[in-house]
Amino acid sequence: MAWTTPRLDPERSRRRLQLLAELAGARTVRQRERPQRARTERLRQLIATRKRIAG
Is residue 16 predicted with pLDDT exceeding 60? Predict the structure, then answer.
C-alpha cells in the first residue's frame, strides 16, 4: 500500500503557515530574553550569597 499525504485545503494550509510563523517569532523573542533572565538569576544568587556571608 502506497503512502499518500492528503492535500490540505488552501485555508488550512494558510492557517498552518501563519501558526508556524508565529511560533518561530515567539521562539526568537524567548531566545532574546534568556540572557537577561540569566543575568537576573546570577544577580539574585550573588545578593543571597552576600546576605549569608554578611548576615
Answer: yes
Model pTM? Answer: 0.46
pLDDT of 1 over the 60 cut:
no
Sign of the torsion formed by the C-alpha atoms of 16, 21, 26 and 27: positive
DSSP codes of every residue in 1-55:
----PPPPPHHHHHHHHHHHHHHHHHHHHHHHHHHHHHHHHHHHHHHHHHHHHH-
Contact assessment for residue 8 and residue 16, using Cβ atoms and an 8 Å cutoff: yes
